[in-house]
Amino acid sequence: MSRHGCRHLCDLKASKGTESFKIIHKYFMSCSSAQARRRQARNCVCHTCKCWTPRLHSCLSCVFFGCFGSKHIHEHAKSKRHLLAVDLTYGSVYCFSCKDYVYDEEFDDIVKKGRDVASLAKGIQMFSVWEPSLSEVDLLKKNPKRRKVSGNSTIGLRGLINLGNTCFMNCIVQALTHTPLLRDYFLSDKHICQMAKDSQRCLVCEMSRLFQEFYCGIRTPHTPYRLLHLVWTHARHLAGYEQQDAHEFLIATLDVLHQHCKGNNGLSDKNPHHCNCIIDQIFTGGLQSDVTCKQCRFLKSYLDGTDKFEDPTSLTHCLKRFTRPEHLGSSAKIKCSKCHSYQESTKQLTMKKLPLVACFHLKRFEHSTGYHKKIGTYVSFPDELDMTPFMSSSRNHNNGYSEQVIQESASSLSSENKYSLYAVVNHRGTADSGHYTCFIRQHKDAWFRCEDHLINKATIEDVLRSDGYLLFYHKQILSYE
C-alpha cells in the first residue's frame, strides 16, 4: 500500500496541494469549540437530500456534501468528474475512480494533529461540566432531538442482557462505559490493534465496539456475548455461568485491557518501569510507605502498591485508618541507618500519586475454611471527595496529619485533589448467592439505577443511601504534563 495515496490523489495534491483537505478538516471535522460544533451541526448536511447521515462525505474539489450510503456523493462525482471525497467522520479519502479508500501519510498527519488539539482543548475543562466529546457530537446528529446534551438526555444509557448470572459483568461494563476519559479514548478510534491477524481475540477491540454500541443512540438492551466469551478466554478463573465477584472481574478486565493496550504506547521515557497505556494513565496511582524509627524519629520512605484497609462507618474513616501510623511491635524491629541498631518503628501508608479515577473496594465478603459471610455494615460515602489529607505531602511526621491541613482542605474550592462520584456498584443477598446492581452518573445531576436490562432514574439521595461495594470517583480537575 502506498503512503501517498493513488495517482488521482497525487494529481490533486500536485495541482491544489492539501489546502482543501485542511479547510474541511478544520471547519467540519476537528471542531474544538462549542461555536465550531454548532456551525458543524448546522452545515454538515447532504446537499441533495438535506439530511445528516453517519457516512457524509465532502468533495475535495468543490463545496459539496453528499451521502455515501444513498450514493448522492457518487452522483456528484460522476456528473462533475470530481474523483475524490473525504469521510467527515473518520477523515478517510475515497477515490471514485479506484472505487476504494486510499491512504495518504500527509492527510493522516493532519487528522492526528487535529485530534490531539481537540482532545487537549476539551480535556482542560472541569470534569463537572460534562460536555460531549467530538465523537459523541457526531453520533448525536443521527437524532435531531439529541443534538444538544441537555439534563434530560439519555444518550449513552443502554441496558445489558443477563446471560446467566452475569450481573457482576454488566455492572462493571456500565461503570467503564461511563468513565469519561475511557469513553473519549474509545470513541476517538485511538486503539491500534496489536493482534491484527486475530483481532477477534482482542479485548480492547471488543471494548471499542461496546462503546460504539452504547453511544449509537439505540435504546434496546445490548447482549454482550462476545465480551463474555473474551473474558472467559483471557481470565479462565472467571469462566462458567457461576456468580462471580464484581471486584475480581474489574481487576481481571483492567489487567487484560492493560496487556492489550500497552503495545500502543510503550513505556514512559521518564520512568522505564511505568506504562503509558490508557489504562495506566487513568487508573494507576502510587502509595508511599514510611517507616519511622521510634528512637530517633529517622524516616525511611518506600513506594508500595498494596491497597487493603478495614471497613469502619464512612469512606473518610476508612481512609484515615488506612493512612494512620501503625506500630510494628518488638518482634518486627528494623535496623535504623541513623541509630545503627535495631529499633522498634512505625509504618504509615500515604498517597504518593493520585489516579485520575479512584475506585474504592469496600470489603463485603469474609471467607474462611467452610465459612462464608457477608458484611452488612453501612459505610457512608460522599458525592465529592477531597484526598488532600491523605497525600504524602500532607503528612505530619510527628502526629500523622495536622488539623490545619484537614481544615484548609475542607474549605478549599479549587483543590486539584478533589474527586466527583460517578458510579456505585451494589450487592444484595448473601455471600453465596446475590445480585449486583449499579448507579451511574449520566450528567452533572442526573443519576440512573442499572439492573441488567432495566434502567430507572434515581436521585443522589438514593445513591448515597445505598450499601456501596465499589465506588468510582473521577478527578474534578485534570492536569497535563
From TrEMBL:
Enzyme Commission code(s) on record: 3.4.19.12
Catalytic activity: Thiol-dependent hydrolysis of ester, thioester, amide, peptide and isopeptide bonds formed by the C-terminal Gly of ubiquitin (a 76-residue protein attached to proteins as an intracellular targeting signal)
EC category: hydrolase
Keywords for this protein: Hydrolase, Metal-binding, Protease, Thiol protease, Ubl conjugation pathway, Zinc, Zinc-finger
SUPFAM superfamilies cross-referenced by the UniProt entry: Cysteine proteinases (SSF54001), RING/U-box (SSF57850)
Residue intervals of the UBP-type domain: 4-121
One of the Pfam families matching this protein, by short name: UCH
GO MF annotations, alphabetized: cysteine-type deubiquitinase activity; zinc ion binding
Any GO CC annotation of this UniProt entry: cytosol
Keyword ATP-binding part of the UniProt annotation: no
Domain USP: 158-476
UniProt GO BP: protein deubiquitination; proteolysis
Highest taxon of source: Eukaryota
Family assignment from sequence similarity: Belongs to the peptidase C19 family.
Name of the protein in its database record: Ubiquitin carboxyl-terminal hydrolase
Species the sequence originates in: Paralvinella palmiformis
Lineage: Eukaryota, Metazoa, Spiralia, Lophotrochozoa, Annelida
